[in-house]
Design brief:
This protein has 2 helices and no strands. Helix 1 runs antiparallel to helix 2. The chain has 61 residues and is mostly helical.
Length: 61
């Protein structure tokens, strides 16, 4: 995997998180929205981990 491919994948992952966040927040109140918000919280942790890993990787250069 090239650096460009890696960076594109990171951007796509973050974009997918934002799309899911918009979807979750657009749902009407109820169990489906609550479930989506729980999944969004889990996804946020993964995106934050990816971003922190990238910062650490960049700092080591």
């Amino acid at each position: 995997m090239t650096q460009a491919e890696y960076e594109r994948g990171l951007r796509e992952t973050i974009a997918a998180y934002v799309r899911f966040a918009n979807y979750a927040l657009s749902l009407p109140a109820g169990e489906e929205r609550e479930q989506a918000l729980r999944e969004l919280s889990w996804a946020k942790e993964n995106v934050m981990w990816l971003c922190e890993s990238e910062v650490k990787r960049y700092d080591r250069r």
